Amino acid sequence: MNRRDVMKTALVGSGLLSMQGALAASPARGKSSRRTFLLVHGAWHNALHWTRVTEALSGRGHQVVAIDLPGHGLNARFPSAYVSGDAAGFAQERSPQADVTLEDCAASVVAALQKLQPRAGGAKPVLVGHSAGGTVITRAGELAPQLIGRLVYLSAYCPVRMGSASGYGALTEARTGYGETLFVGDPGKLGAVRINPRGGPEYLEALRAAYYQDVPMADFLPFALSLTPDLPLSLWTSKVGVTKARWGRIPRSYIRCAQDRALAPALQDLMIREANAFTPGNAFTVESLEASHSPFASQPEKLATLLDGLR
Question: 35-308, superfamily in CATH?
Answer without folding.
Answer: Alpha/Beta hydrolase fold, catalytic domain (3.40.50.1820)
